[in-house]
Amino acid sequence: MSGSWNGSGLPPAYLAGGSSSFTEFLASHDPSLLPGRRATTAGPGALEAPHGTTVVAVTYPGGVVMAGDRRATMGNIIAQRDIEKVFPADEWSCVGIAGTAGIAVEMVRLFQVELEHYEKIEGVILSLEGKANRLSLMLRGNLGMAMQGLAVVPLFAGFDLERGSGRIFSYDVTGGRYEEHRHHGVGSGSLFARGSLKKLWREDLSEQDAISVAMEALYDAADDDSATGGPDLTRRIYPVVAQVGADGYRRVPDEELDPLARAIVARRTATADGPVAPVTEVGPATGGTETP
To answer: Which run of H or of E encompasses 220?
Structure first.
């Protein structure tokens, strides 16, 4: 512990003025508490740890929806059937996790404290882009762990109070931050989920439609990726779905997801490959498109 402390009251580090970043405070006071600063012992092979997989986000005119499947895997084993991969970051944003589950959850908790600490110190809410940048810096601090196979790849989304719209940000393991438009997905099943999102997304999606599109994308991911879990009607395990709009963050309750999940499964029973996008053809005279 840095500084002297006589055992009464708070340690000096807690009373000194400093940055509005809780992560910076922790790095100077006790860096061993940061997720990326934990000492590890190099072994002969990659460390086996539960991994979270697929998370998707979809924008609509009123905000953004984020959804994550519930399966965590460890090699070829299902480590957990009901893991949560989507969390509130603050009142106006959410974060989804893919990668090493334990470190990812710890990073999310630190991110939540980071945003709350900033608001208490500065007296204002950090902008959505500022929140995305803070998460990028935290990821950069985990690079050493990522190089040992303990990578975390989050997906961040929220309602931008200045723009009045939902926005999505993706990251790489080095902390690189990229704004995505319309929709995006991360995790082992994201390749299949993104293909589904491209076909189903529309400009005029309602909140309910956006939730359905996200759940359809996760179903498609589970159909082709063994590490992604589909809706489990027997155990009543459904994706974690969050919606962030002008009224703030809301986790969609399972009571709302149950009929949607059952409808998706029923449609897939009739048509295994799911809904298809309308096909358009180029008009011969104008070069425009028209639906046949």
So the answer is: helix 207-224
In order of their start, the domains of the chain are: 51-272 (3.60.20.10)
pTM here is 0.81
Exposed/middle/buried for residue 48 (C-beta within 10 Å: 0-12, 13-18, 19+) = exposed
Rg, the chain, Cα only = 21
Mean pLDDT, to the nearest integer, of 24-28?
54
Positive/negative CA dihedral, 189, 190, 192, 196: positive
Token duo for residue 288? 């425009």
Query: Sign of the CA dihedral 122, 24, 38, 139?
Result: positive
Residues 217 and 196: their CA atoms lie apart, in Å, by: 5
Mean pLDDT over 206-224 rounds to: 96
Q: What is the pLDDT of residues 92-131, one digit of tens each?
A: 999 999 888 888 888 899 999 999 988 888 888 999 999 9
Cβ neighbours for 35, distance < 8 A, ≥ 6 positions apart:
103, 106, 107, 110, 138, 141, 142, 145, 152
Query: Would you state the structure tokens that stand for residue 109, as one six-digit string?
Result: 């908790």
Catalytic residues: 53
Quick one: what percent of the chain has pLDDT higher than 90? 57
β pairing state of 86-90 and 93-100: antiparallel
